[in-house]
Structures are given as C-alpha cells and as structure tokens.
Amino acid sequence: MAEPKLAVRRKSRSSAERKRSRAPVQPVAASSPVARKRPNSDGEGPPAEAPCSNDSEEDMFGDYDSFYGNDSLIAEVADIEHKYLQDKNIDVKAAGEIVLGNLQSGVHQKEQDNFTASQTVVFLKSDKESACQMCDSDRADGNQELMEFTLDDLPSSQLLCLKKMDELSSASRTSPISKGRDECVNSFSEKMRDPLSFYAGAEHRNRPTDSSSHSKCVLFKSESLKDHLKNAMTGNARAQTLQVSKTKQLKEAVLSEEIFVARKAIEYSSLDIGPFYGLPSKVKDLFRQLRGIETLYGSVINEWQHDCLMLESLQQRKNLIYSLPTSGGKTLVAEIIILQELLCRQKDVLMILPYVAIVQEKVRGLSSFGIELGFLVEEYAGSKGRFPPIKRRVKKSLYIATIEKGHALVNSLIETERICDLGLVVVDELHMLGAGSRGAVLEITLAKILYTSKKTQIIGMSATLNNVGDLQKFLQAEYYTNNFRPVELKEYIKIRDTIYAVDSKTQNGFAFSRLLNFKYSSNLEKADPDHIIALVTEVIPKYSCLIFCPTKKNCENVALMVCKYLKKEFRAHKEKEKQDLIKNLKSIGNGTVCPVLKKIIPFGIAYHHSGLTNDERKTIEEAYSAGVLCLLACTATLAAGVNLPARRVILRAPYVGNDFLKKSQYKQMTGRAGRTGIDSAGESILIVQEKDKHLVQDLVHSPLENCYSNLLLELTKGIQSLLLSLVGLKIAVTHEEVDNFMCCTLLGVQQQLLSKEKSFSEIIKDGLENLIEKGLLKGRISEDHNSKSTLTITPLGKATYKGSIDLAYCNILYRELKKGLEGLVLESSLHLLYLSTPYDMTSTCSPDWMIYLRQFNQLSAAEQKVADIVGVPESFITKMASGQTIRKNVDHAVVNRFYLTFVLYTLLKETNIWSVSEKFNLSRGYVQNLLNSAASFSSCLLHFCEELEEFWVYKALLTELTKQLTYCVKTELIPLMEVAGVLEARAKQLYNAGYKTLAHLAYANPETLVRMIEHLSRRQAKQIISSAKMLLSEKAEALQEEVEDLLKVPTDIPGTH
C-alpha cells in the first residue's frame, strides 16, 4: 500500500488580494522512492527562489487555504477546538484527536487530486498526543541511522524547521510549558523516523493513556491548538532551501527508480536493490555477457529456475535442498542466491565444492562478477586461504573452498565469534556427505554451522540424492526437485552388436533399438570386440564423444586402439590446431611430451585421468572445449570434475576399477551426454557383457544409493575429530552438551541404524575417553548425565584440530617435531621436507630399492645425518636393493616416507615433474599428486606449530617451504601463479611476453594478451585479467584494513573516562 502523502498548496488568488507577493518554496527532495520533477504553474521548470524572512505571521496565514481546498483551515481548527473544550467532560487530548480525525477525513477525500509523489510531507496532527505517549527512554532508543535516511528525503524547509525547533526546545527547558514543547519536538523527531506513524489508524488514536501521561497533557491547555499549528507552519515556510547538487539529485533519482521497480517485483522489498530477483539489472547483463546463458536457454532464467528462486522457503530464508539432473542448471540458481546474499543482505558467503580444480574454475568464473559488482572472491584450496579470514569493513567476501578448507574456515569463524557474518553456505554435490572421510568432514562442517549460527542459511544441491528425508531432517531444510534437462537424454545399452533402449515400461527393462551398421574385418573384430570404433565413428569428428574406462591404463589402450583403425581423413580435421596442441604440451614438459598423446592427438583423441599433470590436464580440457579434440578416453573422475559435456557418452564397462558401477556414478557419467545449446539430444551407451546383463538391469532401474553418515566409519577423521573440536571451540564442554550436539548430526538422525551393541551415548562416551587417553582432552567423563564436570582441550589437542591434522598421526607428528628441535639440519631443506611429507601417502608408496640406494649415495654428509635422525639406516637400503634378508627391525612407514621425501627434494631442485617422474620411475600424475598433498600438509603443519610455543622456530621455515611446494617453480613465476587458473606453462608464457607482476596482468588489455600469448582464447584472457584484478583488489583491501586498524583510536585509553 502506498504511503499517504500530505501537501500544502496555495489557492489561486490575484496579486491585489495579497498583502505581499511571495515566491513558493521548491522542495529539493522527494519522499517517494522515485524522484520526479515538479514543474511550476507555467510548466517551464522550477521557479526562482525568493527570501520570505520579512513576512509576518498574519500576512502568511491570515486567509491561507487548507490542505483540502478549504479557505479557513486555521479558523476551522480554532472553532472545533473551542467547541469541544466547552464541554468539561472532554479533555484536551480528546479534543486534539477529534480535530485530527476531522482533518484526516477531509484529507483522504482529496488526496488523489492534491498529492503527488514529490510534494512536501507536512505533519498536522496535534503534538499533544505524541508528547503524552513519548518518554525520554523511548527517544534514546531511536534508530539514528534510520532517522538520517528518512530526513534525507525531507524538503529543506522542514529540515531547517526541525533543527530550529530542536534548538528552541534545548534553550527553554526550565519552564513547565517549555518542557512540554520539548517533548513535542522530540516526539515529532521520532515520527520523522517512521513516516507511516504520521498516519496511524484509529486504533492508535483511541489508545488509552495512563494518569502520568494525562498530567503532561495539561501543560498544553495554556496554548491553543490554532497557535501551535500556526507557529509550526510559520517556521516551515520561513526555512531556507538547502543547496544540493543537481548531478547528485539525478544519480539518486536513477538509483531510486531501480529500487522502486524492485519493490514492486519482489515481496521482500526491504532487501531488493534491483528488478532481477532483487538484484540490479546489471547482474542479468553479466550473465548474458560472461556466460552466454540467454543463448543457451533462450532466456537467462528458465521456468524451473524461476520457480525455485521464488520458493516461499527461500523468501523466508529457510534452508533448502534441491535436486535436478546433471546439466539442469542448478549452478545458476545457486549463483543468483549467492549474489542476493552478498549485494542485498550484505553478508559473507561460503561455497563448498568437492575438488581443487572446480574451486579454481569457479574462482575464475566469479571474479568478473566480483570486479563489476564490488565484492571479493577468495580461494580456499590446497595451501591457499587465510585463517581467520580478514574482517572486511566495506566489501563482502565470497569464500570458495574445498571440503577440508571449508571446515577449517568455519572453525576459525566460530573461534573468533564471527560465524554470524556468514549469511549463506552453498554446498555443491551434497551427496558427498556419504563419501568416506571427506563426507565426514562435510557433515562436521554443516553440523557446526547449524548449531552455532541460526541466521546462516544452508543451500545444498545435487543430481544424485535418494534418502532426502534424512538430509532434510539433518539440515532442517525444505526440498525442491525437478526432472528438467535442457537437452533430452536417451539411454542405451549394447550387448554384442545390438543396441537396446532403456525402457522401464517393458518386461525386462530394455527395448530393441537397432543393429550396429559397421563392417568389421576379422582382425578388427579381434582388436575391438566391443565395437567401440563403430560407436565412435558415428559421432566424431563432427560431434564430441567421451569414453569412460574402468582404469587409467585402459584409457590409454582404448585411445591407441581407436586411432590405430581410424581412417587418415580424421587427421585432416583441424590439423594445424592439433599440431599447436602438441607443441604446447611439449613446452609444458620442457621439451618432452607423452608418446601416447603424441600418437593419438593428430586424430583428435586424448586420454584424461589422474596420471596427467595439472598443466597437461588443463590444456587437454581447453582443447576439448574448443573442439580441437573430439574424443576423450577418461576415468570416472572426469564425471565428478569440471564440466565437459559430449554428444555421446560411452561406458566401456559397468565397472570402476574392480568395483561394479554404482547408480550415482552411472547417473553422473551419463549426465555428461548432451551439450546445451548445441545438441537437440544426448546419448549414453553402456557396453555390457552377457554375464553382467542382470546386474545392469538392476543398475539402470534401481533407485539411487542412500546417503549415510561416515562419522563412525572414519573414526580419527570423523567422530573423534568432531568431539575434539567441539570442546576446543567451546561449542560443547560437558558430556550432556556433547550428546545434544551429536543428536543434530546426520549420524544422530540415522542413529537407529547403529549396531544394538552400544547406545549412541555410549559411543560418544568412548570417543571422549579415547581423546583423554591420547592427551588431547582433559577432564572426567561422569556416568551421571546431570553432572556439570567440564572438559578442556590440551595444547596438543588445540594444535591438532586447528592444524586439521588426522588424529591417527598427531602424536607421532609431535614426537618427530620435538626430536627435530634437538638437531634440525638446516644445511638443506631435506629434514624440513621429511617433516612435511604427508603420512597418508606412505601406504601407496612402493620404493624402487635400486633407485632408493642411488639417491641415498648422492646425499651429502649433512643429508645422511638427516637419514640417521629420522631412522633410515643406509645398511637397510643396501640390503633391500641387493635382495638380502633383513634382520634389523626398521619402521617401513618411515622408510617409505623418506623415499617420498627424496622425490619432493629432487622436485624442488629441478622444478620439472617430467624429469623427476622418470628418475623415480613414477607416473607424473602420482608425482603431481604428491606435490599437491605435501603443499597442503605443510600448510596444516604450519598452523599446528603456531599453536605450540615450543615449535616457534618452525613457523618462519614452514611459511617459506609451503610457498615453494605450492608453486614449485622459479621464484619469478610465483606472482603470476597466484592468479587462479594460471599454471606453470601459462606463467612462463606470460613472463616471457613481459607480464611479470600481478599488476601487469590486472591492467592488461585482453586483445593484446590474446595476440601475444599462444593458444589463449579471448574468454580465457578475460578470466585471467578478472582473476588478477580480484587478487590485486583483495591484497589492497587487506593492506587498507591493516592501516585502518593501526590508526584506529583505542576506546580504552587510560584517563579518558
């Protein structure tokens, strides 16, 4: 409902009838959200202002017209007041109310004719009622910020009038009548803070008052309502017009217009700043420009996305889980909700994604939005991220994090009592809750947010959810689902040379579709019994295709087999681009390229699995997206990673490794079929052997797997880690409080599924006792649940949870660091590298003992001393290399770990993954993974040491080592590699082209960048520039925050109070 508006207008009179001519006062601000120009009577713009200070009160208001066209407003007010005051049974307050009632009834009859959005609001009501109802404490509790906002919209005349009345009231507080006026003025100021209160309904006007309020009203008997009203109007008319820049008025008018439109479009208008779901229209334009979304869907938002965004649960800020098929457009909805939180509600946001590569991709994609819309995008992945994050005074932050880094971030916010700054948490791939130790960490993170911040909204999304009821109960969330896919998906299975369509309506679930039409020779039949070449050549090179294989080796074998039997015509398709791709890969490998890739890329084929380096993987993904490559043979990890859709998806076998395919994995793989905006339909074909037919029937028609808690299955990374951090963060410090928290976890929701041997409470009790035995907690676990005995965390326990150290290794890590203090060898980085080598990779390490011995013999005397300190004797390595029997008791975990340390040590010296992988006979992908894990563990180790004073010496050493492990390049390339998505090969290209600093990239011209850097698309250039600008802005903001903190005047200076 529009706010009622009152205006004063002067009835038309000839100049002879006036005692003195005066120019009308032109208001400079409007009370409506939309500012409008108000022409003068001639329609030629605003009239010139003239001073009116010489006018007398009689001259001004002798025959002044009323608010609704009556010539005798003042006289009528006086008559009504006099009439009702004659009756002794009616008090002054009642008279004022009746007068106001008569005035308002007349006002409502004429308001549509007389009032416009830009006319001056004038308050008429007798202030006696206000004075009666207002007390000093009410005035003190007024919202100053809201008052300033309201006063900005008032005409200058009223602003000066209010100021004058306030000054007069301050100067005359000694007399009883002055005190009454003072209360009136303050009441008027309070009403100015809430303009709607001027026009309160009858129920407010007839509200009874107490005797004290009535006694105050008696003060006004000596002053007539006519005089009071006349004095107020005089002050208002005499006020001078404030001088305001017209440019400023125009800018405010434009902003007000957009706000006004948004209020009409969305119900929760107080949070809207534009017409696009409460966001400025600029956001819609950015989605068009940066994502091409309108081109893909025909409009920026499709029907299901609109329905989801308009859900009542979202409007009421309830938690929400929504599920759609892969490629359904889930991410766009999440991004709009994120922007609403950052721009409208002005709160920080955490987005949790499953993999480092996806985090980096999202940072690159959203940095452009941050630059344009004024928020920061901060990366929390691997070793990157600041704990706690910098508290920003102006800009809000979007934290994009992996599961592990998201947990550490939430811990730091809880510890610094800033968790309520987090307005929204978005979790992609919510089904990861059921994925081993990572699922346990995700469950812990969400449980802590739910328990410690009732104002933080949680949004979870996934394409593969089944037991949604448990997840809804855990997250206290609403649920939305839709079967929308922008491109239709057709599912098939192939048995021998026959293709069947998946059809649940038929008896066995499959319907005959067609026979393969491809002539196989006897040799080809032997080489390709599954007819992969026939399936592939129906699609490539015109369209793209993905082949999901059970193992990494199978990926390479399938790619080699396909290109071996393809016709030579396939080489001609985009031949130059494919040669450029091989050159690019060669430069990445410092002159070396994988022989398999070198053979298959000319046919437009490549493999994609964890055996590739980060640079290689990213280069191949970009080439596939650009259409240079038309076929990828890949493992299941691609389905859960970056978005690489295809016209046809072929599943080589219903297995991942040696395990039969899960329904969620099948859905993720087949979901890659169909490229939005390119294909009218996508196809998935699962190759099935006769022996697996019945298993596949169950697979394609069965429901998705349920999502179960992993807190108990992952003991040290699950429930024990949670219990330790609950006490450390003081979320729960008694057995009863811990029990209450645990009931809020997914494990608590699903506790009926637990074994009957122990109750849920007993499992928790055992976990706490185990932590006390390890020396991580102190206290006593009482059998009595009502006991208030509290638990406290030990320094080691605090260091463990703050460093995100696996509880299985925390004690051995402490002992090794303590031992290092006795004789830390600093002549090289070998000793420090050993301490930073991740424990969990030793189980996957199988040393080549001849290589081990060769590397050992190359050590200097100081480096051999490191081997003695950590417990790796040379005699043991010699005997293992020669195949002799070992009698000496040696810890094999330590030996394996030291071998991995050798790999890292060589890698830091040579900074070339290719040469190191060859030297140690390891796959370059394994070496890359080791490097990434070591960088992350080194960062955790740094936080661990920061909590223990005795390890102060490690802090500076580990800070530098973490940086070296993170980038593993020459020092001059590090500033460029800090930019999201810029890896070593790209950093070298940029450096050689003259882009040597972050500022060089931030202020680069995208067209120049494309011209100077080979194999760089315009889209990639813009993303690099946006990411560099965002990083530069983030660093500048951090420095500014530090400056302001330094210059901030302390509030507790001695002697100032």
UniProtKB/TrEMBL annotation:
<dbReference type="GO" id="GO:0006281">
    <property type="term" value="P:DNA repair"/>
</dbReference>
<keyword id="KW-0234">DNA repair</keyword>
<dbReference type="InterPro" id="IPR050474">
    <property type="entry name" value="Hel308_SKI2-like"/>
</dbReference>
<dbReference type="GO" id="GO:0003677">
    <property type="term" value="F:DNA binding"/>
</dbReference>
<keyword id="KW-0539">Nucleus</keyword>
<feature type="domain" description="Helicase ATP-binding">
    <location>
        <begin position="311"/>
        <end position="483"/>
    </location>
</feature>
<keyword id="KW-0413">Isomerase</keyword>
<keyword id="KW-0378">Hydrolase</keyword>
<comment type="similarity">
    <text>Belongs to the helicase family. SKI2 subfamily.</text>
</comment>
<feature type="domain" description="Helicase C-terminal">
    <location>
        <begin position="535"/>
        <end position="719"/>
    </location>
</feature>
<dbReference type="Pfam" id="PF21099">
    <property type="entry name" value="POLQ_helical"/>
</dbReference>
<keyword id="KW-0347">Helicase</keyword>
<dbReference type="InterPro" id="IPR048960">
    <property type="entry name" value="POLQ-like_helical"/>
</dbReference>
<dbReference type="Pfam" id="PF00270">
    <property type="entry name" value="DEAD"/>
</dbReference>
<protein>
    <recommendedName>
        <fullName>Helicase POLQ-like</fullName>
        <ecNumber>5.6.2.4</ecNumber>
    </recommendedName>
</protein>
<keyword id="KW-0227">DNA damage</keyword>
<dbReference type="InterPro" id="IPR001650">
    <property type="entry name" value="Helicase_C-like"/>
</dbReference>
<dbReference type="GO" id="GO:0005694">
    <property type="term" value="C:chromosome"/>
</dbReference>
<keyword id="KW-0547">Nucleotide-binding</keyword>
<feature type="region of interest" description="Disordered">
    <location>
        <begin position="1"/>
        <end position="61"/>
    </location>
</feature>
<dbReference type="Pfam" id="PF00271">
    <property type="entry name" value="Helicase_C"/>
</dbReference>
<keyword id="KW-0067">ATP-binding</keyword>
<dbReference type="InterPro" id="IPR011545">
    <property type="entry name" value="DEAD/DEAH_box_helicase_dom"/>
</dbReference>
<keyword id="KW-0238">DNA-binding</keyword>
<dbReference type="InterPro" id="IPR036390">
    <property type="entry name" value="WH_DNA-bd_sf"/>
</dbReference>
<dbReference type="GO" id="GO:0005524">
    <property type="term" value="F:ATP binding"/>
</dbReference>
<keyword id="KW-0158">Chromosome</keyword>
<dbReference type="GO" id="GO:0005634">
    <property type="term" value="C:nucleus"/>
</dbReference>
<dbReference type="InterPro" id="IPR014001">
    <property type="entry name" value="Helicase_ATP-bd"/>
</dbReference>
<dbReference type="GO" id="GO:0016787">
    <property type="term" value="F:hydrolase activity"/>
</dbReference>
<dbReference type="InterPro" id="IPR046931">
    <property type="entry name" value="HTH_61"/>
</dbReference>
<dbReference type="GO" id="GO:0043138">
    <property type="term" value="F:3'-5' DNA helicase activity"/>
</dbReference>
<dbReference type="InterPro" id="IPR027417">
    <property type="entry name" value="P-loop_NTPase"/>
</dbReference>
<comment type="function">
    <text>Single-stranded 3'-5' DNA helicase that plays a key role in homology-driven double-strand break (DSB) repair. Involved in different DSB repair mechanisms that are guided by annealing of extensive stretches of complementary bases at break ends, such as microhomology-mediated end-joining (MMEJ), single-strand annealing (SSA) or synthesis-dependent strand annealing (SDSA). Possesses both DNA unwinding and annealing activities. Forms a complex with RAD51, stimulating HELQ DNA helicase activity and ability to unwing DNA. Efficiently unwinds substrates containing 3' overhangs or a D-loop.</text>
</comment>
<dbReference type="Pfam" id="PF20470">
    <property type="entry name" value="HTH_61"/>
</dbReference>
